[in-house]
User: Fold this.
Amino acid sequence: MKLLLTNIKTLLQTRENPPKKVSGKEMGNLPKIENAWLLVENGKIADYGDMKNLPEIEGFKPIDCTGKIVMPAWCDSHTHIVYAGNREQEFVDRIKGLSYQEIAEKGGGIVNSAKKLQETSEKELYSQSAKRLEEVMKLGTAAIEIKSGYGLTTEAESKMLRVAKKLEKHYPVTVKTTFLGAHAVPTEYKENKTAYIDLICNDMLPKIAAEKLADYVDVFCEVGYFSVEETERILEEAQKHKLIPKIHVNQFNAIGGIATGVKYNALSVDHLEVMTDKDIEALKGSETMPVALPSCSYFLSIPYTPGRKLIDAGLPLALATDYNPGSTPSGNMNFVVATACIKMRLTPEEAINAATINGAYAMGISDTHGSITKGKTASLIITKEVPSYGYLPYSFGSNLIDSVIINGELI
Ligand code: NIG
Ligand code: FE
Assistant:
């Protein structure tokens, strides 16, 4: 099936020889073609160019994009969309004055979601998660990383990852899966955290690796969750199973998780709301992508990742949603991009680079996703008629997406 998009007002993120990631120094540059065409064939970007040089093409379905912007679909490199139920009650508890940490200490938080998930059948978990995936596809997400971490038993962690794999099979979206057994300490292990880490290392990791359920490994490296030493033990063990880290660090405290991530060649270090100068230095010269999750800061009323500072230090930056029931019950990348501009002082060019090519890097798919490049996957956003691309984050909260093409399929 061929699709020919014509009269595109602006075709964004056109890169002939795309880099794997875009550094802070280059993030202000967003290559584009005004008045463009683009041909989709067999799920790939077959060709594109200036309308002035539109070649003879036969046998296609035409899509007129007059007044509209076309760009690569969002690459959301950090989500927890496989979960059961919701935590609306904790949301109300926070409004009434309890903190996120206080709720977790009372047995709410991640272990609350784990209890719900353990009691939910795989079929039901799939149907709840599929609804969320369908929602974010319509919002322009075509590639998504999905973590486990609400199972906290070998069986329930595997169940979550099987659901994520099934989503990948049934939808055109590109899915990467991450094993996050070290998301919280289950209640029954509260007095013996080492025994839970033993379970992760000796039972969960080998089984999940043997069944090829995960591409990456994650740890919530934070006060009250997993220390730097415990994180290192898990990453060391994961290395034996060839699982590359993508870790939760510096959400509430800077305890050295970033240097650990870099030491273990993490593909990304995510959250980064609290950053020291030492953390920034640790990232310099590394292959590790810093990932900011501004919707989480918004929902929990915690500091925003100092994105401006990271970019000004020359570091690349990616943006993701963190879609999960506790800290970010939203998977809207358009809101993430707008919030990064409004609250983190990223320019529209920087935010779009962060949510496309750098997002793709943070999930290991920048060879196939994240830019308008011949041969890359045809996953595209077609906007409504808008005056310019800066208007997208400017009009935060409005849905300016007309249609979405995922893997060559108009959804
Ligand atoms: O990325 N911070 C750790 N994990 C998730 C939230 C977990 C939850 O509250 O359910 C996050 O914010
Ligand atoms: Fe997260």
